[in-house]
Amino acid sequence: MIQGAQPIQKIIAAQKRNEAIFRVVAIAAVAISLATLGALLFDAFSDGLRRLDWQFLTSFPSRKPERAGILAAIAGSFYVVSLTSAISIPLGIGAAVYLEEYAKNNRFNRMIEVNITNLAGVPSIIYGILGLELFVRMMKLDRSLMAGALTLSLLALPTVIISAREAIRTVPSSIRQAAYAVGATRWQTTRDHVLPLAFPGIMTGIILAISRAIGETAPLIMIGALTYVAFLPTGLDSPFTVMPIQIFNWVSRPQKGFFECAAAGIVVLLILTLMLNGLAIILRNYYQRKFSVRSL
Amino acid sequence: MIINSSSVQIRKIKENTVQAILFGCAIFSVFVTAGIIGVLSFETFEFFREVSIIEFFTDTQWTPLFTQKHFGIAPLLCGTFLTSAIALIVAAPLGILTSVYLSEYASPRVRRVIKPILEILAGVPTVIYGYFALLFVTPLLQKVLPDLPGFNALSPGIVMGIMILPIISSLSEDAMYAVPQSLRNAAYALGSSKLQVSFKVVIPSAFSGITASFILAISRAIGETMLVAIAAGQMPNLTLNPMESVMTMTTFIVQVSLGDTQTGTIEYKTIFAVGTMLFLLTFGLNIIGHKLRKRFREVYA
């Protein structure tokens, strides 16, 4: 027995050592991703803040890096994303409500569901190809704000649908039954009870979809958003550029000065997307806490 | 209260109208898929009327924008494969370690802090990753590997690995989290350590879920555009050497659409042929990935 006790202690010691080693390795792995995010932020801000000033925010692009600015791109991004939201949010919420509240569990509705999951995985550049053929060529919208917004709407739609469905699903069914019990119709129940309760969750998904739309580059290059735009968009048929395309254009220039412009543009874009992401996360945490209290 | 029949009827009409509108919203997504498949297949069919399908798959050169045209997609497939493979080599071990740590080791407080940060990593616009790869990671790598050219597959591959890491870590963590506690308890009762439980019980039980996360992450890497367009170069190159400049399928599509390509020309149609390849690859991977995830969920339902 005493002889046997020795190896057991050894095994336990070895296990404890392995545990400690694993903890270090795992924390290192987590640290690598955090460090990369840190390096990315530091790199962009240290290069970009030098260039980022009022002149940069209020100027049009220029052949001279020190006179170039991002105004046209900020305006373009704002218009495109507003239009995209106006199109994809109602469509997306409508689809989510149908699938969660109305659809029977039959073959056809399951096909719609599978289809949405698959659409969410289609590379964004493929949406650009679709937009190029459908909106730019067949609908003759040309390289316009409208063509860009329609293309991004199709891209954002699956994200909006999926997150809205998740939000609707968290609404307890007792609330629906209470509404039905006092004679409400299905739509009344949905409009007056389910949607208001699911609203914060739906908002979270919408904000994430918008933040992704602001950063989208490839599909808009496909439909021919321009890289040199020295005016503000004048209407739905106006040519336009957006921030990520302007940044891409500056990164692809050989002159060093434009790299600084790119970095400054990245700072603007990063601040916007990080703020939106942060807002979504805060909203979700608040919402989760609220719901867990309600279920008590 | 008397309910008269006409108000009931109005109510019914209203209900049916709303339902029809909502159904329209849902069915719209099917039209989008139909549109994608329709557009891609129509123009790809046109493309293969001019270029033989055998040349497309066997030629080793891709030069549709030159006067001496070759239409072999192999170099583009190779470039796409190379950058995605590097990304997976980086993301797979880091992703697994992160998800084991978060699901089995970390305290709820640590999870609450780290998970949103990882989500932010997935939310950074890819054009910013491109800038980071070209102007930060490549110069850094050049200090270790002096021969590394300014455009190469290695640097965007590594950055892409960090970019897809949140996909792997969050989907794998979901899978590990779904492994029933009873399995862990059984292993603990036999005297296993936490590490043994994690690697001999939890990971094998969550295996199909973890595989699904890899497949969905690869699909994302294959479709990634701006990162490789900025940092990997624009030279179609039939190589598996990560130190060389490569062109991916997505980069080619961007390159053509940045130029002044007239619609109807063979150059224009190449976008759709390459797009079809890209679509089929990602679509296939996504279907397999989601099937695996679903099967995994059913096992522990």
Which short descriptors sum up this protein?
heterodimer, A: 296 residues, mainly alpha, MetI-like fold, 79% helix, 0% strand, flat, B: 301 residues, 12 helices
> Residue share in helices of chain B?
over 70%
How many H/I helices of chain B? 12
The CATH architecture of chain A would be: Orthogonal Bundle
The number of distinct β-strands of chain B equals 0
Q: What assembly state would you assign to the polypeptide chains in this entry? A: heterodimer
Count of DSSP E strands of chain A? 0
Please write the CATH class name of chain A.
Mainly Alpha
How much β-strand is present in the residues of chain A? under 5%
What is the fourth-level CATH superfamily of the largest domain in chain B?
MetI-like
CATH superfamily of chain A: MetI-like
Q: Tell me about the largest β-sheet of chain A.
A: none
| Helix share, percent of chain A | over 70%
Question: What CATH architecture of the largest domain in chain B do you see?
Answer: Orthogonal Bundle
**Low-confidence runs of at least 5 consecutive residues of chain A:** none
